[in-house]
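ok so dumb question maybe but i'm new to this and my supervisor (M.) told me to 'just get the structure for SufE family protein' and walked off. so i did the thing. is this what she meant?? sequence i used:
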Amino acid sequence: MATEAFEDIVADFEFLDDWEDRYRYVIERGRAMDPLDDALKVPATKVDGCASQVWLHPTIANGKFDFEGDSDAMIVRGLIAVLRALYNGVPVSQVGQVDAQAELARLGLNDHLSAQRSNGLRAMIDRIRLVASQSA
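this is what came out, is it supposed to look like this??
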């Protein structure tokens, strides 16, 4: 049930030879994102459970889920970009049906992130699912 944007990332990953290149790719995805407005970096948008500072600001328009995000760590900004590709544009009622762990496993991320980064990634996914469930 992945979006076209996420499928593009999966296809790009298949062409990258090693994890150093894949990490660079993820970081570049994060660099390409617009920074989150400082006015949106408030306790309500901060994600607990992440080693770095992370903010996710969701919006729902026309029944579709969308979010912006930011972090003080470049790799985490990249992970936010990957999650945006996975979730943005999904009907809010279907966000909870997205098996993020399985989709991210297609990229091999589960095996190549530190325990802290994996926990932070799970915390971001949990926040996305919570916000969507409260809005559905």
